[in-house]
Amino acid sequence: MAAIELRGVTKRYERRGILHTDSVTALQNVDLTVEDGDVFGFLGPNGAGKSTAIDIMLDYVAPTSGSVRVLGHDVDSDSVSVKERTGVLPDGYGPVSERTGREHLEFAIDAKDADDDPDELLARVDMLGPDGYPVDQYSKGMAQRLMLAMALVGEPDLLVLDEPSTGLDPNGARTMRRIVREENDRGATVFFSSHILEQVEAVCDRVAILDAGRLVTVDSIDRLRDTVGGSARVRLELSTVPDGVIERLEGIEGVSSVDVDATTVDVACENRAKAPAIATCYDSDATVTDVSTTEPSLDELFATVTEGTA
Ligand SMILES: Nc1ncnc2c1ncn2[C@@H]1O[C@H](COP(=O)(O)OP(=O)(O)OP(=O)(O)O)[C@@H](O)[C@H]1O
């Protein structure tokens, strides 16, 4: 079963200005399937439509056209079943009240009729201690950790994390990544929207890239790298540089240049050419004493995929 299915989803908002009203198309005919058990990254520049898509999945906003199924339920007619089995970390909403973090969490546990141990959840997000303070005294990062603990209540089948790293320091971001992995190991599907490409790369199996309301690609990060190409590099230390090996490297499809400095060979290439380049050196008369590789960054890949589509 697919955890999330969007079919032909379009969303137009009316924008009321002082002098006139126009409309903006936040999503344009989006088809998206997130398989059960995926850790799925949802990427896109500002204004691409990510929050709108999430709001539609959770029935906070109705699409102008199209249909949405989440965890097998039609979101329009059965949003209660979806909400019962989904944990949400929303973007930009922190808890604002004089109640303590623990009280918020206990409320979330009661509301979901769950039997979670608040101490256990607070410990998972490193919030045991500050949980006794009123949340209006929390820093952004503390509020974000508390919201994450609340999203975990009731062992949801689907976790929707909208920009989960907002306000988190590196330790908090590490905690969040660990929790995403733990939840996925437990069997939950995780839908993870972010601008922070390294976060997505560290935890996601597949990514969708949304740009100006259109889905421009859905793939694994590795396959995206292969498709987009980009600037991978392979550096090989050889015992000696045998005759003909440079020409053989230059002849591999996807290799753009080969530089030699004494016995160090630097190959600039597309991602797909890395393995053949390494194999060519191993198959030569030289002994390969060291190999290091770098991949095109997700930043580079993101820029390539969204270029010209905005
Ligand atoms: N309630 C609304 N009324 C009018 N326009 C809206 C509304 N919500 C979003 N939009 C518009 O829809 C488009 C998509 O916005 P959305 O917030 O979904 O993008 P996003 O990818 O989440 O952006 P960001 O990364 O900046 O949060 C934008 O042009 C935005 O101005």
Automatic annotation (TrEMBL):
The keyword Cytoplasm does not apply. It comes from the Archaea. GO terms for molecular function: ATP binding; ATP hydrolysis activity. Gene3D superfamilies: P-loop containing nucleotide triphosphate hydrolases (3.40.50.300). InterPro entries: AAA+_ATPase (IPR003593), ABC_transporter-like_ATP-bd (IPR003439), ABC_transporter-like_CS (IPR017871), DrrA1/2-like_C (IPR025302), P-loop_NTPase (IPR027417). Keywords: ATP-binding, Nucleotide-binding, Transport. Residues 4-237 form the ABC transporter domain. Belongs to the ABC transporter superfamily. This is ABC transporter ATP-binding protein.
